[in-house]
Design goal:
The protein is an all-alpha fold. It has one domain. Helix 3 crosses helix 5 and helix 5 packs across helix 6.
Amino acid sequence: MVVARVAMHYQLPLPGCPMRELSGVPCPFCGSTRAFAALAGFDLLGAVKLNPLVTLAAMVAGVAWTVSAMIGKGRVDRVRHRLLASAVSKWVLALLLALNWFYLWRNLPR
């Protein structure tokens, strides 16, 4: 997030999304750099507007990292393994990815 924030602040040349550049259609992760920069600047609403799924994933990763530091990595790994092994969770992740992509297709600013 800090790297994204610095890159955006100093307007460093970052590569664009190849899918969007070739087709005009954003990929499911378009806006991630700007969302990370917004998160680094504590602009949660701005980050959600840019890419809701990446913002959610970054927050979940931050919470998981904090919890694993507090209770131990082994417990967190067991819970993560159970969640990812479930067929329902795979369908939920696929649905979230599809909904995020649809949202980006309709709302992502250029």
